[in-house]
Design brief:
385 residues; alpha+beta; Methyltransferase, Cobalt-precorrin-4 Transmethylase, Domain 2; seven-stranded antiparallel β-sheet; 27% helix; globular
Length: 385
């Protein structure tokens, strides 16, 4: 399809949404999944519809930023993760200089069914005429049966991350983050440069006194096939010879001051960023992917306040902070998948994507994540003042 489709009617492969849908991207994700599980199609963001017909533009002010944010969101919630041209997001411009987004969904038959990942599990939808509906069990089973058998083979990295996380769920309280490159990345754990990265935070772009696991006062400990650092102080980073990185923080290390069971936002967001920055220094190959998983073990009844600790909304809140009450632990069904190039080019933003589901689990939208995440430069910038 070429040109902005004003005057056209919604069909099985055409959907219109206003720009405010960008603030609730789950609704967009549902539509994409529905089209991927049928014959594909296009979703236009920034178009007002009337009785199913594209009536007028609802232009997007910063379309490139909106495109990147939506792209990152979809990369985290679509399963299987989009490949190639399966999901493309383009900025379209009308003759008056107004911008909208066009999302193209082109399914691969041997990768169906597609699902939307949420805290409650996988959700399967399909497009029927101009409407969206949940898939039946029979429809889901039929699409799974038609997959290429190679697509159903479990990735060895997923069980490895899951096994580590499940073992930690016997602990009293841990903030855990695991990274596993695919294919594995061979690391020489006796390399003195790796030791220097652990002892000097600035070498990987981290703050010397920030919320990270580096310290000039600790010595790395060589064990069978891995290097362990920081175990004595409750911030343990383990570097494996196959490139697997594991960070474990005692849950009390997320507190700041004397307030009990209150997660300090800077601690929550800076630890994963520090790990991704380290990964960007340790990994050498730019091809392949990295699986990333996180868990908050023993977090029940803990509270997370929105916004930056340096903001007026944090210091003088208008509403009570949200607490996690659903279960003892906060875990996710599937790890996130990152392209290696993303970790080299935007390690901080990889950390942002890992943090976003935690805020969502507490009931917050991403604008409640500390403003120190610069959305323009896609970096975390926390001053030492």
């Amino acid at each position: 399809m070429t040109g902005i489709p004003l005057g056209q009617h919604e069909t099985n492969n055409l959907e219109f949404k206003q720009k405010d849908s960008l603030s609730q991207p789950e609704s967009i994700g549902r539509e994409i999944v529905g089209m991927l599980n049928s014959a594909g199609g296009e979703i236009w963001i920034g178009i007002k519809e009337q009785d199913g017909t594209a009536a007028s533009l609802d232009p997007i002010n910063d379309p490139e930023s909106a495109r990147k944010s939506l792209r990152d969101y979809l990369a985290d919630v679509l399963e299987p993760a989009p490949q190639g041209d399966e999901v493309k997001i383009d900025v379209e411009r009308d003759p008056d200089g107004r911008h909208v987004l066009r999302i193209s969904a082109l399914p691969s038959e041997d990768r169906k069914p597609y699902a939307l990942l949420k805290k409650s599990g996988r959700h399967f939808f399909i497009r029927s005429d101009d409407r969206l509906r949940p898939m039946s069990r029979e429809e889901i089973a039929k699409q799974f049966q038609s997959r290429n058998p190679a697509q159903n083979a479990p990735d060895s990295a997923v069980p490895a991350l899951r096994k580590e996380r499940d073992a930690l769920q016997k602990s009293e309280g841990i903030y855990w983050i695991g990274l596993q490159p695919q294919p594995p990345e061979a690391l020489n754990i006796q390399d003195v440069d790796i030791h220097r990265y652990l002892q000097d935070a600035t070498l990987s772009g981290n703050r010397p006194h920030g919320w990270n696991f580096m310290s000039p006062y600790e010595e790395p400990e060589l064990r069978s096939g891995k290097l362990v650092f920081g175990a004595k102080v409750g911030r343990t980073i383990t570097i494996h010879e196959n490139g697997h990185l594991s960070l474990k923080i005692d849950i009390d290390g997320l507190k700041h001051g004397r307030k009990e069971r209150d997660i300090y936002p800077f601690a929550l967001v800076e630890y994963p960023v520090a790990l991704f920055r380290l990964a960007s220094c340790l990994y050498r190959s730019k091809s392949g992917t990295v699986l990333a998983d996180a868990a908050l073990i023993g977090i029940q009844e803990w509270t997370l306040r929105p916004y930056s600790p340096r903001s007026i909304h944090f210091q003088y809140p208008l509403h009570p902070a949200q607490s996690w009450t659903e279960s003892r632990d906060m875990v996710w069904e599937q790890p996130l998948v990152f392209q290696k190039r993303e970790i080299f080019e935007e390690p901080d933003w990889c950390g942002f994507r890992l943090i976003r589901p935690i805020y969502e689990a507490f009931g917050y939208s991403e604008d409640k994540i500390p403003m120190e995440f610069d959305h323009t430069n896609r970096r975390l910038i926390i001053s030492d003042n």
